Amino acid sequence: MPVKQVSGRVTLTHAKGSSVELLLYGATVISWKAGTITEPQSIERLFVSSKSAIDGSKPVRGGIPVIFPCFGPPSHPEHMKLAQHGFARNEVWKFDSIIMDNDEVVSVRLTLEPTAGITAKYDKPFHLAYIVALAEHQISTDLHVTNTSTSTAYPPDNLEFQALFHNYIRAPANDVLVFPLQSKSYFDKTEASEEARNKPKVETRAGVDVRQFTDSVYEDAGGKYEVTWPGGGVEITVRELKDVVVWNPQQVAGVKMGDMEDGGWERYVCVEPGHVRGFAKIEPGKTWIGQQVISVIHHERRINQL
Ligand SMILES: O=P(O)(O)OC[C@H]1O[C@H](O)[C@H](O)[C@@H](O)[C@@H]1O
């Protein structure tokens, strides 16, 4: 069976050997295994900390958590009762359906609607659908956000939100470079003062490394990224997700995270496409779709990039 659902966990298996596992908790993808043309044996492409909870007691420290409706600490007046990164990553989603099940693609849809628990801290009407699709060398995740308000009042009852896919890409962090962010403007969240964190910097590096504690929010970042290391890499292309965050805590911040395994920060880089500077806005009855496609890179790229 290409799609299995057992105790809150959904497994997608592709005819060519790739696979995905996701939890209904947070709709969090916790594993994506794929090979390349030259090395077809499927290997794990995502990082999950061995100290992470995966029992639904806390957001997963790894994989691909879904961030909605706020990124970081809430700043929008409608989000003030929410925790950092909102609620989508720690609510139990519903398995809705298998969308595709053929030799090319296996895909499923999960949904999340307001519950009493959500409404107590966030009273906007919404519907979320999350589609995860697996191809031989690719995973895609699409978040459909619908404003289900039926209000016809003026001004319109818009839904204003941020959304982001918090990809923990398994990689030798000290050898990683992220392209092409040169000359993009970014906000450096590692700065000590609020004033410095809110002052845009301009990226001067051709390839962005994470050898130091890095927490950078690139605005209008271009929508196509390569995360490469000697001998490997992934490419990420997006739709409607204008910004990208590059994050690695390194030891200095990593040791302070209770659910991070020792040295875990050496084994991943987070490259997180999202709409996180400002807010996406949808009118009543309308749907917004944010998408990413992550593909394995088959051939060494670093020779050309350096
Ligand atoms: O610890 P979490 O709430 O999962 O957040 C983990 C990280 O997420 C993003 O990458 C933010 O830019 C970081 O500032 C934050 O530390």
Automatic annotation (TrEMBL):
SUPFAM superfamilies: Galactose mutarotase-like
GO cellular component, one term: cytoplasm
GO biological process: carbohydrate metabolic process
Gene Ontology MF terms: carbohydrate binding; glucose-6-phosphate 1-epimerase activity
EC numbers for this chain: 5.1.3.15
Keywords, sorted A to Z: Isomerase
Enzyme class name: isomerase
Annotated catalytic residues: H166, E272
InterPro entries: Aldose_1/G6P_1-epimerase, G6P_1-epimerase, Gal_mutarotase_sf_dom, GH-type_carb-bd
Residues that coordinate or bind substrate: R61, Q84, R89
Superkingdom field: Eukaryota
Reaction it catalyzes: alpha-D-glucose 6-phosphate = beta-D-glucose 6-phosphate
Similarity comment: family membership: Belongs to the glucose-6-phosphate 1-epimerase family.
PANTHER family: APOSPORY-ASSOCIATED PROTEIN C-RELATED (PTHR11122), GLUCOSE-6-PHOSPHATE 1-EPIMERASE (PTHR11122:SF13)
Functional summary from the UniProt entry: Catalyzes the interconversion between the alpha and beta anomers from at least three hexose 6-phosphate sugars (Glc6P, Gal6P, and Man6P).
Protein name: Glucose-6-phosphate 1-epimerase
Source species of the chain: Suillus plorans
High-level lineage: Eukaryota, Fungi, Dikarya, Basidiomycota, Agaricomycotina
